[in-house]
Amino acid sequence: MFQVENYSGATEKDFELLLKQLEALIEDEQDMIANLSNASALLNQFLKEINWVGFYLWKQDQLVLGPFQGLPACVRIASGKGVCGTAVKERTTQRIADVHQFPGHIACDAASQSEIVVPIIKDNQVVGVLDIDSPTKNRFNEMDQKYLEKFIEILQKYI
Protein backbone atom coordinates (compact mmCIF):
# COMPACT_ATOMS: atom_id res chain seq x y z
CA MET A 1 0.00 0.00 0.00
CA PHE A 2 1.31 3.45 -0.92
CA GLN A 3 1.63 6.00 1.84
CA VAL A 4 2.12 9.69 1.19
CA GLU A 5 5.42 10.86 2.63
CA ASN A 6 6.05 14.32 3.95
CA TYR A 7 9.00 15.66 2.04
CA SER A 8 11.58 17.59 4.04
CA GLY A 9 12.18 20.44 1.63
CA ALA A 10 15.80 19.34 1.26
CA THR A 11 15.71 18.77 -2.48
CA GLU A 12 18.34 16.06 -2.90
CA LYS A 13 17.12 14.08 0.11
CA ASP A 14 13.55 14.32 -1.16
CA PHE A 15 14.53 13.15 -4.64
CA GLU A 16 16.29 10.12 -3.12
CA LEU A 17 13.07 9.30 -1.25
CA LEU A 18 11.12 9.70 -4.51
CA LEU A 19 13.37 7.15 -6.24
CA LYS A 20 12.86 4.67 -3.39
CA GLN A 21 9.10 5.20 -3.56
CA LEU A 22 9.10 4.56 -7.31
CA GLU A 23 11.05 1.32 -6.90
CA ALA A 24 8.68 0.14 -4.15
CA LEU A 25 5.61 1.03 -6.22
CA ILE A 26 6.60 -0.82 -9.38
CA GLU A 27 9.05 -3.57 -8.40
CA ASP A 28 6.43 -6.33 -8.40
CA GLU A 29 4.59 -5.23 -11.55
CA GLN A 30 5.63 -5.76 -15.16
CA ASP A 31 2.67 -4.08 -16.89
CA MET A 32 3.96 -0.93 -18.58
CA ILE A 33 0.71 1.06 -18.44
CA ALA A 34 0.20 0.30 -14.75
CA ASN A 35 3.75 1.35 -13.93
CA LEU A 36 3.60 4.52 -16.03
CA SER A 37 0.27 5.42 -14.42
CA ASN A 38 1.68 5.08 -10.92
CA ALA A 39 4.87 6.89 -11.93
CA SER A 40 2.94 9.89 -13.25
CA ALA A 41 0.77 10.01 -10.10
CA LEU A 42 3.88 9.81 -7.90
CA LEU A 43 5.58 12.68 -9.76
CA ASN A 44 2.39 14.74 -9.64
CA GLN A 45 2.26 14.29 -5.87
CA PHE A 46 5.98 15.05 -5.43
CA LEU A 47 6.71 17.96 -7.77
CA LYS A 48 5.61 21.49 -6.96
CA GLU A 49 4.71 24.17 -9.50
CA ILE A 50 3.75 21.80 -12.30
CA ASN A 51 0.56 21.67 -14.33
CA TRP A 52 1.09 18.46 -16.32
CA VAL A 53 3.13 15.30 -15.92
CA GLY A 54 2.94 12.18 -17.99
CA PHE A 55 4.21 9.95 -20.70
CA TYR A 56 4.08 9.74 -24.45
CA LEU A 57 4.77 6.30 -25.94
CA TRP A 58 6.53 5.64 -29.25
CA LYS A 59 4.12 3.84 -31.58
CA GLN A 60 4.12 3.64 -35.38
CA ASP A 61 6.86 6.27 -35.77
CA GLN A 62 5.23 8.88 -33.53
CA LEU A 63 4.62 9.69 -29.88
CA VAL A 64 1.14 8.79 -28.64
CA LEU A 65 -0.34 10.07 -25.39
CA GLY A 66 0.06 7.65 -22.48
CA PRO A 67 -0.70 7.81 -18.74
CA PHE A 68 -0.67 11.33 -17.31
CA GLN A 69 -1.91 13.73 -14.64
CA GLY A 70 -3.31 17.10 -15.74
CA LEU A 71 -5.57 18.63 -18.34
CA PRO A 72 -6.33 16.79 -21.59
CA ALA A 73 -3.29 16.85 -23.86
CA CYS A 74 -2.12 16.58 -27.45
CA VAL A 75 -2.59 12.98 -28.58
CA ARG A 76 0.12 12.52 -31.25
CA ILE A 77 3.51 14.17 -31.71
CA ALA A 78 5.90 13.50 -34.59
CA SER A 79 9.62 12.97 -34.09
CA GLY A 80 11.41 16.31 -34.15
CA LYS A 81 8.24 18.31 -33.40
CA GLY A 82 7.94 20.33 -30.21
CA VAL A 83 9.96 19.61 -27.08
CA CYS A 84 8.85 15.97 -26.86
CA GLY A 85 9.59 15.21 -30.50
CA THR A 86 12.98 16.90 -30.18
CA ALA A 87 13.84 14.74 -27.15
CA VAL A 88 13.07 11.65 -29.25
CA LYS A 89 14.97 12.83 -32.32
CA GLU A 90 18.05 13.89 -30.35
CA ARG A 91 17.72 11.15 -27.70
CA THR A 92 18.56 13.69 -25.01
CA THR A 93 16.76 15.40 -22.17
CA GLN A 94 15.29 18.75 -23.12
CA ARG A 95 15.12 21.29 -20.28
CA ILE A 96 13.37 24.40 -21.58
CA ALA A 97 13.27 27.52 -19.37
CA ASP A 98 10.73 29.35 -21.57
CA VAL A 99 8.68 27.24 -23.96
CA HIS A 100 7.61 30.33 -25.88
CA GLN A 101 11.22 30.74 -27.00
CA PHE A 102 11.45 27.12 -28.22
CA PRO A 103 11.04 26.94 -32.02
CA GLY A 104 8.04 24.78 -32.90
CA HIS A 105 6.74 24.45 -29.34
CA ILE A 106 3.40 22.63 -29.27
CA ALA A 107 1.08 24.43 -26.85
CA CYS A 108 -1.23 21.78 -25.40
CA ASP A 109 -1.87 23.91 -22.29
CA ALA A 110 -1.65 27.71 -22.62
CA ALA A 111 -0.60 27.94 -18.95
CA SER A 112 2.67 26.08 -19.56
CA GLN A 113 5.76 28.27 -19.37
CA SER A 114 8.62 25.78 -18.94
CA GLU A 115 9.09 22.10 -19.67
CA ILE A 116 11.39 19.15 -19.17
CA VAL A 117 11.27 16.04 -21.33
CA VAL A 118 13.33 12.91 -20.63
CA PRO A 119 13.51 10.25 -23.35
CA ILE A 120 12.90 6.63 -22.39
CA ILE A 121 15.28 4.36 -24.27
CA LYS A 122 15.44 0.63 -23.67
CA ASP A 123 17.68 -1.78 -25.60
CA ASN A 124 18.72 1.19 -27.75
CA GLN A 125 15.10 1.71 -28.88
CA VAL A 126 12.96 4.75 -28.04
CA VAL A 127 10.04 3.65 -25.86
CA GLY A 128 8.65 7.11 -25.18
CA VAL A 129 9.23 10.21 -23.10
CA LEU A 130 8.48 11.61 -19.68
CA ASP A 131 7.02 15.10 -20.16
CA ILE A 132 6.55 17.64 -17.36
CA ASP A 133 5.15 21.15 -17.81
CA SER A 134 5.15 24.05 -15.38
CA PRO A 135 3.21 27.33 -15.31
CA THR A 136 6.43 28.95 -14.03
CA LYS A 137 9.28 30.02 -16.30
CA ASN A 138 12.65 28.40 -15.58
CA ARG A 139 11.02 25.90 -13.19
CA PHE A 140 13.41 23.01 -13.88
CA ASN A 141 17.07 23.02 -12.87
CA GLU A 142 20.07 20.70 -13.16
CA MET A 143 19.13 18.77 -10.02
CA ASP A 144 15.62 18.16 -11.36
CA GLN A 145 17.14 16.87 -14.59
CA LYS A 146 19.63 14.63 -12.79
CA TYR A 147 16.98 12.98 -10.63
CA LEU A 148 14.32 12.74 -13.31
CA GLU A 149 16.87 10.93 -15.49
CA LYS A 150 17.52 8.56 -12.54
CA PHE A 151 13.75 8.16 -12.18
CA ILE A 152 13.57 7.03 -15.83
CA GLU A 153 16.54 4.66 -15.36
CA ILE A 154 14.59 2.88 -12.61
CA LEU A 155 11.35 2.90 -14.60
CA GLN A 156 13.05 1.40 -17.67
CA LYS A 157 13.71 -1.81 -15.73
CA TYR A 158 9.96 -2.35 -15.31
CA ILE A 159 8.57 -1.48 -18.73
Strands, total number: 6
Fraction of residues in β-strands: 25-35%
Secondary-structure class = alpha+beta
Helix content: 25-40%
Total of DSSP H or I helical runs spanning 4+ residues: 4
Please tell me how large the radius of gyration is.
Answer: 15 Å
Taking pLDDT < 50 over at least 5 consecutive residues as the criterion, the unreliable ranges are: none
Shape: globular
Distance between the termini: 21 Å
What's the average pLDDT?
A: 93
Kindly report the spatial arrangement of strands forming the biggest sheet.
3-2-1-6-5-4
Order of helices and strands: HHEEEHEEEH
Major sheet summary line: 6 strands, antiparallel
Task: Produce the secondary structure layout.
Layout: H1 11-26, H2 32-46, E1 52-59, E2 62-70, E3 76-78, H3 82-90, E4 94-96, E5 114-122, E6 125-134, H4 142-156
Antiparallel strand pairs: 1-2, 1-6, 2-3, 4-5, 5-6
